[in-house]
Amino acid sequence: MIDVIIAGCGPTGLMLASELRLQGLRPVVLEQDAEPTRIVRAMGMHARSVEILEQRGLLDRFLALGTPFPLGGFFAGIRKPQPERLDTSHPYVLSLPQTITVRLLTEHVTDAGVQIRRGAEVRGVEQDEEGVSVELADGTRLRSRYLVGADGGRSTVRKMLGIAFPGDPTTVDTLLGEVELTEDHDTVIEIVNEVRKTQLRFGAMRLDDGVYRVVAPADGVARDRTVAPTLEELSRQMRATAGTDFGMHSPRWLSRFGDATRQAEHYRVGRVFLAGDAAHIHPPMGGQGLNLGVQDAFNLGWKLAATVNGWAPEGLLDTYEAERHPVAAAVLDNTRAQMQLMSLDPGAQAVRRLVARLMDFDEVSRFLTEDLTAISVRYDFGEGPELLGRRLRDIALKQGRLYGLMHRGRGLLLDQTGRLAVTGWADRVDHVVDVSEELHVPAVLLRPDGHVAWIGEDQRELTARLTTWFGAAVG
Ligand SMILES: Cc1cc2nc3c(=O)[nH]c(=O)nc-3n(C[C@H](O)[C@H](O)[C@H](O)COP(=O)(O)OP(=O)(O)OC[C@H]3O[C@@H](n4cnc5c(N)ncnc54)[C@H](O)[C@@H]3O)c2cc1C
């Protein structure tokens, strides 16, 4: 029997495959498309996702192909400088087309031995006490202990499980594409800046190879958003919005997206889980969707692996939904707020001006930025110091940097007292005795995803927390 089947070879499915493989599992990824898509949706990764790559020793290959940009201007497109003193050692957005992110993750998991089956569309899902049966469009049946639906916003897995997906339907469509323009660049920029004073869903951005990524409001809502617009339709909408189509021609690809905001009522039914867009969709304001999915996978991976590997404490798998559902609900909320701030309604414009002025206060700007970049996410681990439940940022230790010690995806006790022990859990938890000027507590216990599970100096308390998160002691 396969350990875990992952439906969907997008960023979420691939990050999950990477995490499961790291823990010794052999997941199989099923992807309906025969070839990777050429359509570029996300254009970058935010600080928490960058940190995750660093925690697994993967960041260098992404930095080699991406460009770090300052973090200002993300919230509702309100242009402000990057706030000072962000709580991360990666205070930038890594600009990198989603197609390249997917390619790099695919290469990584394939090298690690993960099997990706393309042209494999999941059509049917049934589960019983022992496992999950997955049926493909060609009639093939596969059996696994667990299934994760990382199959995007129209998730078949979610539908097969009958999980409700409440929220708001699309009210406006936006056209998107990569095309060549004959107009000279300065004129394009001048017109775009002028039009964007009143229409923020319009734009043309020159890419490295001279091709432009253009966006324009569609005329109404498409009955089937999977059908790509024609060049004629995009050109017509550009002219309707800006009075020109900049002489566009030779499209590399064309696409459209809506503004629906929805969240799955549950992330788990028995042996089947949802992650990424399959669990939540929202407009792309602030560039959060891909990041949210990668971070879902980072939360779920070690827990699922611990269960398959037999050491998961009771209830560990249920903490996935308990922790990640509120995080996505908050993202849906902030995208709704951003959509309001981008409305042309005079009242909304007045609120936008007010928010823009408030963002001149560094505290406000930092709060919004740490929210969008997910570095301020705090899971509810009960009463405790402010750091409890947050991820610990990459701090400098005498023996190097913290994230450099987390590549194996194990728990980690960072012990500045030298008096603590993880005996009984040493097969799952590393004990690092070291000091850091950036850590102002005696010791922290980190989960494999870097979140702080305990703070203190008392061995009995630590032992209780080790049991909570890492199961029974051995030996
Ligand atoms: C215009 C636009 C701009 C965006 N910009 C950003 C941004 O800047 N930053 C950001 O973080 N996010 C952004 N997003 C959102 C981001 O693209 C998504 O959140 C992200 O792709 C979600 O990843 P995923 O792996 O969960 O799903 P997907 O990327 O949708 O991957 C799902 C995969 O599952 C496959 N699949 C579907 N059904 C089946 C099936 N039945 N069987 C097998 N395989 C199946 C699909 O073919 C697909 O490959 C943007 C989105 C849009 C539309």
Percentage of helical residues? 25-40%
Gross geometry: globular
The chain-level structural class is alpha+beta
Output mean pLDDT. Answer: 96
Instruction: Give the tally of β-strands.
Output: 24
For the report, how would you describe the main beta sheet? 8 strands, mixed
Distance N to C terminus: 29 Å
Strand content: 15-25%
Tell me the number of helical segments per DSSP (H or I, 4 or more residues long): 12
Any low-confidence stretches, pLDDT <50, length ≥5? none
Bound molecules: flavin-adenine dinucleotide
Radius of gyration, in Å, reads 23 Å
Structural features:
binds flavin-adenine dinucleotide; alpha+beta; four-stranded antiparallel β-sheet; eight-stranded mixed β-sheet; 24 strands; 12 helices; 475 residues
Please, could you describe this protein's structure?
α8 (289-308) runs antiparallel to α9 (318-341). It contains 12 helices and 24 strands. 32% of the residues lie in helices and 21% in strands. The longest helix has 24 residues, at 318-341. The strands form 6 sheets. Strands 1, 2, 6, 7, 8, 9, 16 and 17 form an 8-stranded mixed sheet that branches. The protein is of the alpha+beta class and 475 residues long. The structure holds flavin-adenine dinucleotide. Flavin-adenine dinucleotide binds at residues 7-13, 30-33, 41-44, 98, 121-122, 150-152, 156, 176, 257, 276-277, 284, 287-291, 293. Flavin-adenine dinucleotide binds next to α1, β2 and α8.
